[in-house]
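Self-study notes.
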Amino acid sequence: MGKHALTRVPQTDPSSTRRGLVRGGAQATIRPTRASAATASIIDRRGNPAQRFGFVMFAVTALVAALFVSPEPTAYATAMSAEWRPQAQSVEVSATASAEVVRDGFTYTEPEPEPVVVAPTTGSTGGSGSGVAPVAGTPDPGSAKAIAADMVAARGWGTDQYDCLVSLWNKESGWNVYAHNTSSGAYGIPQALPGSKMASVGGDWASNPATQITWGLGYISGRYGTPCGAWAKSQASGWY
């Protein structure tokens, strides 16, 4: 026989375990394996246009049916929440409204004013009289009050004592030298009881104001200390 060259055919299927050898000028036929046949079958099925169109139509139909039959849970929950949400209260405030305050009725009684107290005139040196009298002012010259003012100053008493003396004898006799109380028998400016007591100072006690004033100041000094002391007693009891 003649010489033949051996040629190695490249392996086309990795999964094949057979190797084909051909002699020079001859072609070797390689049988496909089971894996190669399965792969070819899948390629044929996927490559069929009718099958691909049917699969796509089925998928689209299923998607549309899912959208209409089963709505999204979030949209459903939102609708239910809006339906069952309680109504909130609303309050309207007017900018022109004003608060009205009503007070209970009551009666107010003003307190009585306190009496005005006139402080004694400074310079008084005699007695501790507790009475206070209004200011008498300056007496007319030569009058019974003028005589009394001189005698009060001679005893060292201040003008406050003169004021008390004027108030006291204004109440008792009105400085009338002939004043006579028919019910009690008191007489004269100081209302001596009886009037004849003033005879100890002078026999003209019934008509002389100086005699009556002298006796009256002596009586006040011995019993009340000062004209203001006698005035306080007269205010308290109505007599001195």
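Second protein, same conventions, sequence then structure:
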Amino acid sequence: MVQSQPPSPKSEHRFRFPRKSSFNGNGGHNGSPTPAKHGALSDLKRFLNQHIHDDNPKPRKVRTPSPGASSTTSSRSSPAASNANLLRPNHLSGAATPTPSLQEATQAHLSKKYGKWGRVLGSGAGGTVRLIKASAKNGGTIFAVKEFRPKRTGESEKEYQKKVTAEFCVGSTLKHTNIIETVDIVSDHGHYYEVMEYAPYDLFSVVMSERMCRPEIYCVFRQICDGVEYLHELGLAHRDIKLDNCVMTTDNVVKLIDFGTATVFHYPGKSSHTPATGIVGSDPYLAPEVLSQDSYDPRKSDIWSVAIIFLCMVLRRFPWKIPDPKSDPSFRAFVNAHPDLTVARP
């Protein structure tokens, strides 16, 4: 089987690309974009408004499986084939559908504290995300508010609250340029809401614009690496790194989001690392050992996922649907072409 390589220690050979980039539309369309000069920030804003922003986008379901999930996604096709379909992973089959509406009392409570409710950004197994905007006199700040999914049948209130507060505690502890900031958590009428900073552009849309030149791809890749390195230094693994969980600000800063499946692999004062278990993540981004081993190093699986993101940015498609040589011919071809990466199963 192919196994992701161990994380490398810090070295002097890290990328030195500038952290800011403007997607100015000079990239190629055949998987090998042509380098282009970086334009002004206004060029990026104009491009994003023309090619990415949608005043009335449809809510997009995002797969966020639970840490205990033990199955992979099922195949799903779209009648209109496009490059976007090649990059969009399938959703977790049988995932619970969150309640789409917010209780009026809760709306009023959050509106009083943060501002006026806006459109729904998307929904998934973990909950629904919606915008909220402060009034002009209060600065006009826009936040993203996640309403956590309802308590499941058979799930105790204690278990439910533990899962909700765990995600908030993880998010609120992280302080890094390339990690989304968690501002607040609100509990009202049995519903839980996480208030976060809002980054208006998702990396998937930026990649699918087909306008990223190589230096811009490297810049984005470096920022993702910085965010993941920060998590790993804290002893935390994300476990669901993918294009959909990377967003971008108007200043071209890339940020990792959604820590609902994060796990602690190293505790302060301990020399040993705790392996991860279970199949967590989205099929195309999974490391092979996540499927083939009962336990694995979550750092390595994170790094594998980051590498898949890099391939997606360059190719604008997934290299394979799932890293299983028995069921995926593309991955089988990769394994056969690189026997040096194949190791015997333990």
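Instructor comment on the second fold: The two ends are 10 Å apart (CA to CA).
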